[in-house]
């Protein structure tokens, strides 16, 4: 057998063939290696990880080209080369904007990706051409070398099969090797950056396909019994509402104001001696201001923040629940408040279809969605992503003044969005001078947003609404991604390590209205806590027990804020990527101090996911029965 193979390999035509296969695959490997180690920011921590990163493209490359040959010989190989290159490039573009990788649910959101609009030119670079020139090299190798000199030469199906089969042992070696750095890698795959670091971007896509299949199966096979562990967990870990603010805003209107990409680091901070948010800095003295409040979003960005807010459930780790689970049953804030006589609405001057809002808002029970078509969006009043905040605020206040009361209304701003550009006459301060253009621009749009906020809040205070309304202002998510860590370090004058990066995920939360005194709270909390906090302030009995948040004003609450990556902050510690830090000093402490926190974070996310994936709120009517059974059992 071996001698037969040896003889085959000694045949010059076959030698050439092996060389050509090898060369095509090596060029692709080189490109993938350059992208993975040079363009993606995967946090390679040691030499072993660097070797894994170099090794992990191999199995996917064998599979890719093996299948190519199987399907259509060398044409198939070239076709796969092009498909693989495009896939890599789409990931590069997506990564530049979101520091994340494409998932299947995200592909279903083509409408949204097109909405990148202004940002797309920002994330393209002329040097990207170099990511395509190798396609010509591959074509040359396959069709010139292969075709002219060896006309009889054709890749055989059997060879394709062998290449594809070799992918299996290569992948097994890859996984085994990766597990020396992180055990149960595939089971605990919260962090796509980590996954790609260990198995490579193409294998990650294969893994994502498997996940998608599992997701679909989960809903089909779910039943009401799956609510039992969820209810048990919530009963054990979450405390009810506190007394401090109970009924403080009873019967009042609610305006939730979502500030686009606004992070806490801008509050009370300056650039060249000028405050970035002068108005907000003063305003926060008038209300309940939370300085340790975190966003908890993932790929669904703004829509995830809305999902967290209205359901007190976590968004998903892949894709946006607004897209993937808009067909679920929910018992969201608008529905609960509807029973109390509230009308509900959302105001956002973008296309109604963006983030599938038009569909999802119906599922969440909103009465009305004021989208782009309800605003006087003209060329002069728009820039980049669309309607400028100042005009959005002006029109929105007018609409609210006409609204039936009491109302629950969410307003979502737009101007402070990547790429953070403004018309010249709206630039109120100079740009920054860091090494990141994105961050430099961000200072200006943040300053602009603050000015628009001033105009809105001042007019709101003059209006009849003010006495009867509680205004809740919060940031939806980060604006400056990890890709700009270095520039962020230059601005803040410190080294941005994992701890600092985590702390940068804080977003402002401020509540103002009659009966709320000016006070700063350092409570650790997140967007998931907003619904129960608000319901308690309104004095409303919320009869949906499936909520993972807790009243932020309740001093007895277990302080635990979990991010979608499975990281967490509690009163004492911050746990990030397996490392434990003292929350206040940022000093690294022994891992054991965070053990429980990480475990609870993982459990909490898994339970919340079981609710969303299993569409378990459709069994809400049965929860009372389940709870009764539980108590009689005990
Ligand atoms: C678009 C707005 C911004 O409608 O919500 O979306 P984002 O990219 O921040 O999720
Ligand atoms: Mn947003």
TrEMBL record:
Its main location: membrane. Keywords: Cell membrane, Membrane, Transmembrane, Transmembrane helix. The keyword Cell membrane applies. It is found in: Cell membrane. It is a multi-pass membrane protein. It holds the Pfam family Sulfatase. It comes from the Bacteria. InterPro entries: Alkaline_phosphatase_core_sf, LtaS-like, OpgB/LTA_synthase_biosynth, Sulfatase_N. The chain crosses the membrane at residues 20-39, 51-71, 78-96, 129-147, 159-178. Residues 252-540 form the Sulfatase N-terminal domain. This is LTA synthase family protein. It comes from Halobacillus kuroshimensis. The lineage of its organism: Bacteria, Bacillati, Bacillota, Bacilli, Bacillales.
């Amino acid at each position: 057998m071996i001698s037969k193979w040896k003889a085959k390999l000694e045949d010059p035509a076959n030698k050439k063939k092996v060389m050509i296969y090898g060369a095509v695959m090596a060029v692709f490997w080189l490109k993938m290696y350059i992208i993975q180690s040079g363009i993606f920011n995967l946090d390679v921590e040691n030499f072993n990880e660097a070797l894994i990163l170099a090794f992990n493209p191999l199995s996917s490359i064998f599979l890719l080209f093996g299948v190519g040959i199987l399907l259509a010989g060398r044409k198939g190989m070239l076709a796969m080369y092009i498909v693989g290159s495009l896939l890599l490039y789409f990931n590069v573009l997506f990564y530049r904007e979101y520091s994340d990788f494409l998932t299947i649910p995200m592909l279903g959101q083509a409408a949204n990706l097109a909405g990148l609009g202004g940002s797309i030119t920002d994330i393209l670079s002329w040097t990207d051409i170099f990511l395509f020139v190798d396609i010509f090299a591959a074509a040359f190798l396959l069709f010139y070398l292969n075709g002219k000199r060896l006309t009889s030469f054709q890749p055989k199906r059997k060879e394709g099969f062998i290449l594809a089969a070799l992918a299996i042992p290569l992948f097994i070696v890859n996984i085994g090797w990766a597990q020396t750095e992180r055990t149960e890698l595939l089971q605990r795959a919260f962090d796509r950056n980590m996954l790609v670091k260990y198995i490579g971007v193409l294998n990650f896509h294969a893994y994502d396909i498997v996940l998608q299949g599992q997701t679909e199966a989960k809903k089909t096979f779910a039943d009401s019994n799956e609510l039992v562990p969820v209810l048990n967990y919530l009963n054990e870990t979450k405390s009810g509402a506190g007394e401090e603010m109970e009924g403080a805003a009873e019967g009042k209107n609610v305006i939730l104001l979502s500030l686009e990409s606004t992070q806490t680091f801008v509050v009370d901070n300056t650039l060249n001696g000028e405050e970035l948010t002068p108005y907000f800095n003063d305003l926060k003295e008038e209300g309940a201001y939370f300085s340790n409040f975190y966003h908890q979003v993932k790929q669904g960005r703004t829509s995830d923040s809305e999902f967290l807010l209205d359901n007190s459930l976590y968004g998903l780790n892949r894709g946006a629940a607004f897209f993937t689970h808009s067909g679920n049953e929910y018992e969201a804030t608008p529905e609960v408040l509807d029973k109390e006589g509230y009308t509900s609405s959302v105001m956002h001057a973008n296309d109604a279809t963006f983030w599938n809002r038009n569909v999802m808002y119906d599922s969440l029970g909103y009465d009305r969605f004021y989208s782009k078509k309800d605003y006087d969006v003209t060329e002069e009043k728009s820039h980049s992503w669309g309607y400028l905040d100042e005009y959005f605020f002006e029109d929105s206040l007018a609409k609210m003044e006409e609204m039936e009361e009491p109302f629950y209304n969410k307003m979502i701003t737009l101007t402070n969005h990547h790429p953070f550009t403004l018309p010249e006459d709206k630039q109120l301060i100079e740009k920054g001078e860091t090494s990141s253009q994105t961050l430099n621009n961000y200072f200006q749009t943040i300053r602009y947003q603050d000015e628009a906020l001033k105009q809105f809040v001042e007019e709101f205070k003059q209006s009849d609404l003010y006495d009867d309304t509680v205004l809740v202002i919060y940031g939806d998510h980060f604006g400056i991604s990890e890709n700009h860590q270095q520039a962020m370090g230059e601005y803040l004058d410190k080294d941005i390590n994992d701890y600092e990066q985590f702390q940068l995920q804080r977003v402002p939360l401020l509540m103002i209205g009659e009966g709320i005194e000016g006070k700063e709270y350092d409570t650790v909390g997140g967007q998931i806590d907003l619904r129960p906090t608000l319901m308690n302030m309104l004095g409303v009995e919320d009869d949906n027990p499936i909520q993972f948040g807790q009243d932020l004003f309740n001093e007895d609450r277990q302080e635990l804020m979990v991010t979608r990556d499975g990281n967490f902050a509690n009163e004492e510690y911050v746990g990030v990527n397996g490392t434990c830090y003292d929350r206040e000093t940022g000093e690294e402490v022994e891992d054991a101090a965070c053990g429980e926190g990480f475990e609870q974070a993982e459990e909490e996310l898994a339970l919340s996911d079981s609710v969303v994936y299993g569409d378990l709120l459709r069994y809400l009517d049965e929860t009372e029965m389940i709870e009764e059974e539980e108590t009689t059992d005990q």
